[in-house]
Amino acid sequence: MEKQNSLIDSLNDAQRLAVSAPSQSMLILAGAGSGKTRVLVHRIGWQVQVEGVSIHNILAVTFTNKAAKEMRGRVEELLNISARSMWIGTFHGIAHRLLRRHAQQAKLPETFQVIDSDDQLRIIKRLVRSLNIDDKQWPPKQMMWFINAQKDEGIRARHMPEPNDVFLRTQLQIYKAYEEICDRSGLVDFAELLLRAHELLRDNEDVLEFYQDRFKQVHVDEFQDTNTIQYAWLRLLTEGKDNLFVVGDDDQSIYGWRGAKIENLYNFQTHYPNHQVIKLEQNYRSTGNILKSANALISQNEERMGKELWTDAGDGELISEYTAFNEQDEAYFVVEKIRKWVNDGGLRSDVAILYRSNAQSRQFEEKLMTTGTPYRVYGGLRFFERMEIKNALAYLRIMSNHNDDASFERVINTPTRGIGTKLIEDIRLLARTNEISLWKAAVELLTQKRLTARATNALKGFLDLIKRLESEAEGKELFDKVKIIVEKSGLIEAYKKEKGEKGEARIENLEELANAARLFDYEEDNEENLNELDMFLAHAALESGDSQSDEYEDCVQLMTLHSAKGLEFKMVFMVGLEEGLFPSQQSVDDAGRLEEERRLCYVGITRAMKQLFITHAESRRLYGKETYPRPSRFLKEIPAECLQEIRMRANVTRPVVAVKKKPSTMQQVGTYKLGQRVRHAKFGEGVVLQMEGEGTQERVQINFQSLGLKWLMISYAKLDTL
Ligand code: ATP
Ligand code: MG
Fold this sequence. Notes:
This protein is α/β, with parallel strands linked by helices. The chain contains 26 helices and 22 strands.
C-alpha cells in the first residue's frame, strides 16, 4: 500500500486513473503542462513496483536525448533503483541500438557508421556531380528532402514505379545511386536508421519475437509527432499484445514538415480497439494569463480534437509585449531583463530565449557575451558539427570502417599532404567503375603502379598513417584513442599554423572532444558489449548536445521553438514575433502550414511558468536585407486583457515639437515636427505624429497613407522631408 502511495499521491484523479489502469493500450490526450510526461514516468514506476514488471522489460521513447536522460533520472528517483537496463531513448537512438545488435540481420556491416544530414548532403552533392546531373534543376538539398521523405514513408527506390517524366525519373535515379553508395560504404543516415529498424523487425521473425517478448510495456511521449515508419515500427513491436501506452497533444504537433502524422492519433484508436482514452485538463505549469493566451491562440485553428485547459494557480502577471526598434534593441531588452532577474536572485537556467530560426540566436549570444552572462545554445551549429570536430571524427570513423567513403573524402587531404584533386578524381573514377569503396580503389591504384612517384608516396603516406593510428589506438581506452588521433593526425599542427583566434578555438575544441570522450558514458548497460568507439561516433551524429562539460553550469537557455517541446522555464522570451519570420514566410499562404506555425506558437507560450515576454522589431536585417516587418498575427490572437505593452524609455516620450541641435552623421536629426510630411523609400508618404528617444535611439511615429501608424528609428529609416 505504501508503495502505491508514493506513486499516486502527487497526482490528480485523472492522472491516477491513467497510472494505475490495468495493463492495456492507452492514449493520454491532453494539452500542454497537464502532466502527460509525469504520468508516463509514474506509469513506468507503477508497473515495476505494483505490477512486478522488471525494469529490463520496459521500453520508453522520448523526443530528445535530453528528455530521455531526465526521464531515466526521474524513474530512478521514484523507484530508488538503478534504471540502467531500461531501454529509453529517441526513436533514432533505439533504432541505432537495434541495428548494432543485429547488424547482420539488418544487412549492414558490423562497422556501419551513422551520418548526419550535413554528411548526407555532401554525398548527394558529389553524386549529382558525378552523374552529370544539372544541380540547378535537381538541387541536392531538395533531393535530400525527397529521399528522406520516401524513407519516412517506408518507400525504397526499388518500390517506386519508373516514372515517365524526366524530372521524376532523374530524382529516382539519384535516390537509387544514393542507396548504392550508402550500402557500399556502410553508411546509415537518420531516416535510414528508422527504416532499417522497421525492416529488421518485419523481415526477421526471431528478432521480432524476441523484442515483442522482451518489451512487456511500450511507452511513447509526444506521440503526436511520430511519422509513418515510427508508428509502423511501434505496431510491429506491440502486435497482438495491447501494451502500447502513448501520451500526446494534437495541438503540439509541430513536425508535419518532417513527415510527422497527426493522423497517428486517430489511427491508434482504430488499431488498438481495446484501448482506453484519458484526458487531462488541469494545467500545473503556467499562470492563468499565460494559459488563457495559449487557449485563445490555439482556438483559431480549425483542425483540432478540441480541449480546454484550466489552472487554479491564479492569473499571475500579464504577458509583456515589447516593440523593439531593431534586432539589436530587441536583444538589448532581453538581456537587460535577464540581468535584472539574476541580480534579484533568479537562476539563469530558469530563463529561456526561444526563436523561430537558428539564425536569430547570434544577436542574443553577442549581448550575453558582452555582459558576461553564461548561456547555452541548443541546436544551431552543434559541437559535433564543427569542422575540426568532424575532421577528427572522420579519422576515427575511417579507422573503424575503411569503406566509409564520406570520411575518406573528408580526411584524404586534410591536413594537406600533397594529394591533389587529380589523384582524388582518379580514385573516385576507379571506385565508381569497379563499384568499390574509395579506400579499396586507393589500394588498387597503388597495386597497379600507374601513379607518379610523388602521387604514390603521398597516397601511400595517407594509407600508412591510418594504419599506424589504428595500431597505436588498438586496445586503448576511448579517451586515449581520441587523444592519439587528435595529436597524431596532424590536425593540431595544421590549426596551430592558422592565424588568430580561429585556430586557437579549433585546438580548444579538439581538446574538448577528448574530454567529451572521457565523459562519454554509455547510458544503458552495455549487455551486448558493443564497440565503445562506434557507440561514441553514433552519439556524435545523433546527439543534439553541445560540449558536455558545461552542463552543470547555471546558464541561460537558447533554443528554437521546436527544440523547446516538452520543457518548462520560469521566465520565457519569445522573440521575433513578426510576419514573415513567425509565422514563417513559406507558411503564410498555406492554411495547413499556418496552423502548424500556430501550434508552434502554442508550444512556445506554454513553456512559460510565471513570466512570458513577447518581442518583435520594427526593422530587422534578415538574410542580409533590411526588412520592416509587421507584428505577427499571433500577437493579435492573444486576448488584449492578458497583454501589457512595455517600453524601456517610456519616460522620454515628448509629444512636442522637437528642436534638436545634436549633429548626426547618419541622418539630419531635429528636422521633424508634428504634422511634417515625409516620404519613406518603402512605405511611401506619411505624416509625423510623435517623437521619442534621443541621439541614435530617436524615433518618430508616422501615419503612412497606405500602411497606417508606424514607429521608425530616424537613424535607420531613410526619410525625405516633403
Ligand atoms: P507538455 O505537453 O509541455 O509536454 P506535459 O503534459 O508533459 O507538458 P508535464 O511536463 O508532465 O506536462 O508537467 C508539467 C508540470 O506540472 C511539471 O512541472 C509537473 O511536475 C507538474 N505537475 C504535473 N502534474 C502535477 C500534479 N498532479 N501536481 C503537481 N504538479 C504537477
Ligand atoms: Mg511532456
